[in-house]
Write a structure and sequence with these properties.
Layout: H1 3-6, E1 11-14, E2 20-23, H2 39-57, E3 62-63, E4 66-67, E5 69-72, E6 77-80, E7 83-85, H3 90-111, H4 114-118, H5 121-137, H6 140-148, H7 153-179, H8 184-189, H9 198-218, H10 220-226, H11 229-232, E8 243-246, H12 248-251, H13 276-279, H14 300-312, E9 319-322, H15 324-327, H16 343-364, E10 369-375, E11 382-383, E12 389-399, E13 405-412, E14 418-421, E15 426-428, E16 433-442, E17 450-460, E18 467-476
Antiparallel strand pairs: 1-2, 3-4, 5-6, 6-7, 8-9, 10-12, 11-12, 12-16, 13-15, 13-17, 14-16, 17-18
Helix pairs in contact: 2-5, 3-16, 5-7, 5-9, 7-9
Protein name: Cytochrome c oxidase accessory protein CcoG
Keywords: 4Fe-4S, Electron transport, Iron, Iron-sulfur, Membrane, Metal-binding, Transmembrane, Transmembrane helix, Transport
Pfam family, one: FixG_C
Length: 477
């Protein structure tokens, strides 16, 4: 049984002499994480600011007169700077998801839950909500006293201000999300009258509401009970995975002492049992009880403990990033980097590299236009005035580039086959689709009764080396 499960209190309520109700659920207690300063806290601040600048800023970037990152669901086109992704390109979405999955597996095997501690949206938004809380209500002790105090005008003012700022930020995130699917500049223009459609309104409040709920109220409960990653991460951990650990051999037995006192003379370890490592933990665990699945690897306890060690005049690193094998002395911590060559890491990295290279190669070799051939089924075959047989087709040409393109259409497969279109050349504007109706004529002596395989050749006149050949059929009499 893990240490985290051992700590869950079991409540027994006597119903009668012969029965009892046992609760195996831990009672939720509001956490008041203490602010901390240090190297890893600076990294967290950097990641919070960086991820939010990326998320909130991308919709405002322009590219070739349009939004640089824009998912146009109505016209079924996704714009990623100079790349236009069409529904036919969704194989790249599958490749992207595979790359994300194997990158997460690889990183987890190497360094545990660093993603959770620094870049996960739940962690980032919770950190922002804590900043708002600390700015409005004060530090940990002030927040605890405020919550314990009876309601007053002062308390109502602080609580109202805090929740107003949290709601405003949450709605901003929801507004930005919709800005990826509806041009964000048009959203801003419609803001004074709130002239949004039902789906735009729904997603603004849906995403904003859940941001407010998860980051403002549930916080660590999402990480502990709702996030599936916390449950299956143990499958990817091994004794060489980088984790946050408390050096029990150095720290125990723990106990209070005066500054400057020699702990060895008092029979004590370096841990002074100040519990600051617990007070700064955003999920409320005690890292001194060993590795627990709730730990998100944020390293707040490392910064806090290092600060205490500095004040006591002890070496840093009582709590640190290390591996289980290094902590047990099986190899020195300088050798941790050499353990990256183990089979699990190599396998994950190899699969990630293969998928990534395949996707990039396919994208690089992708033709700058796509073609769909649709037969006119309302009129399968008719005879022309000169006695030839004629079939009608609709050819859809998709220009996937940012430049206008001109195309010529020919066909082969039957002797003397001819293609007639309204214009000899077809202009397809940048990132647009053009539908062209063409008639294909064939000599009836070759186009006998039944279906005959033919091929349409669509050639770019901008670059004659680029051509697409699509198979179709010609119906004869």
């Amino acid at each position: 049984m893990s240490e985290s499960l051992k700590k869950i209190p079991i409540k027994v309520q006597n119903v009668d002499k012969d029965s009892a109700t046992i609760s195996l659920y831990e009672t939720q207690k509001k956490l008041y994480p203490r602010s901390v300063k240090g190297l890893f806290n600076n990294f967290r601040i950097l990641f919070v600011i960086g991820t939010q600048l990326l998320y909130l800023g991308l919709p405002w970037l322009q590219w070739n007169g349009r939004q640089a990152v824009f998912f146009d669901l109505i016209n079924r086109k996704f714009y990623l700077f100079g790349l236009t992704v069409w529904p036919q390109d969704f194989v790249y979405l599958a490749a992207l998801l595979m790359c994300c999955a194997f990158a997460l597996f690889t990183w987890t095997t190497i360094a545990g839950r660093l993603w959770c501690g620094y870049s996960c949206p739940q962690t980032v938004y919770t950190e922002i909500m804590l900043w708002i809380e600390q700015w409005v209500e004060g530090d940990r002790n002030k927040r605890m006293k405020l919550d314990a105090a009876p309601m007053s005008l002062h308390k109502l003012r602080l609580k109202s201000t805090k929740h107003f700022l949290m709601l405003a930020f949450s709605l901003w995130t929801g507004f930005t999300l919709v800005g990826y699917f509806t041009p964000i500049r048009s959203l801003v223009a419609a803001l004074p009258t709130f002239g949004y459609g039902p789906w735009e309104t729904f997603w603004m409040f849906f995403y904003g509401g859940f941001t407010y709920l998860f980051a403002g109220f549930m916080r660590e409960q999402v990480c502990k009970y709702m996030c599936p990653y916390a449950r299956f991460q143990s499958v990817m951990f091994d004794a060489d995975t980088l984790i946050i650990s408390y050096d029990e051999a150095r720290g125990e037995p723990r106990g209070a002492r005066k500054k400057g006192a020699d702990p060895k003379e008092q029979g004590l370890g370096d841990c002074i049992n100040c519990s600051i490592c617990v007070q700064v933990c955003p999920v409320g665990i005690d890292i001194r009880n060993g590795l627990q699945y709730e730990c998100i690897g944020c390293a707040a306890c490392i910064d806090a403990c290092d600060d205490v060690m500095d004040k006591m005049g002890y070496p840093r690193g009582l709590i640190r990033y290390t591996t289980e094998n290094a902590l047990e002395g099986k190899y020195s911590e300088k050798a941790i980097a050499s353990r990256l060559k183990r089979p699990r890491v190599v396998l994950y990295s190899l699969v990630l590299l293969i998928v990534f290279c395949a996707a990039v190669t396919s994208l690089a070799l992708r033709k700058p236009f796509k073609v769909d051939i649709i037969r006119d089924r309302a009129s399968l075959v008719r005879e022309t005035e000169d006695g030839w047989l004629e079939n009608s087709y609709i050819i859809k040409i998709i220009n996937t580039t940012e430049q206008n393109q001109r195309f010529a259409i020919t066909a082969n497969g039957l002797p003397g086959i001819k293609v007639k279109a309204e214009q000899p050349e077809t202009l397809v504007r940048a990132t647009e689709t053009e539908s062209i109706t063409v008639q294909v004529q064939a000599d009836p002596q070759y186009a006998t009764k039944g279906s005959h395989e033919i091929h349409f050749v669509i050639q770019s006149l901008n670059n004659p080396a680029l051509r697409v050949e699509e198979k179709s059929s010609f119906i004869g009499e």
